[in-house]
Amino acid sequence: MNRIPLTISDEDFWAQIAVIDAIRDEDIDYSDISPVRDFTGWERGKFYRPNERHTIIIRHPDGSVQISHLEPEERLAIRRRRLEYADRFLEQRPMADHPHHTSHDAADHDAEAYVHGSMTIEEQRQTWDLFMGLTKWGSLAVAAILLLLTLWFMPGGSLITGVLGGGALAVAGFFFLKSPKAGH
């Protein structure tokens, strides 16, 4: 009995592909395949069976499970009830197009009077500088602490090694991340 290997080596695989690639289309023998030219009597979708019944599983609060099969009419009735419930529920809730809060009226009026370039941006600049500073120095602190803990708890590591490594990273990061002098 001949066994077919489940896996073949890459060399064998590519050798077989090369043999197949070398065959010209004209050299392929189709004589064992009978040509079909008459399609009378053929049925499209003969074995297609759409799922006419849907199965739903309902878990009750007491832990019991109910399995039900729904016919198409029942599914349609459930869908209609859900839509009616959703409509009633949405009618009772305030929508997003509620009237504006009165504290926004001055801002809305002022937005129409805004002239491009007239707004001071000092507060926005200070907020941005604060965000960038916290990001920059916070990242350096996290990196230094992570290095300290890694060197401390690695096999053969010690607290002194961790403090020295974390401190060196913190000092180097400080000189690298500090802001340039105002004159530049």
From TrEMBL:
Lineage, top ranks: Bacteria, Pseudomonadati, Pseudomonadota, Alphaproteobacteria, Caulobacterales
Keyword entries, A-Z: Membrane, Transmembrane, Transmembrane helix
Name of the molecule in the record: Aa3-type cytochrome c oxidase subunit IV
Membrane-spanning ranges: 134-153, 159-177
Residue ranges constituting the Cytochrome c oxidase subunit IV bacterial aa3 type domain according to the UniProt record: 115-153
Superkingdom of the organism of origin: Bacteria
SUPFAM superfamilies: Bacterial aa3 type cytochrome c oxidase subunit IV
Provenance organism: Brevundimonas aurifodinae
Matches recorded under Pfam families: COX4_pro_2
Keyword Transmembrane (UniProt): yes
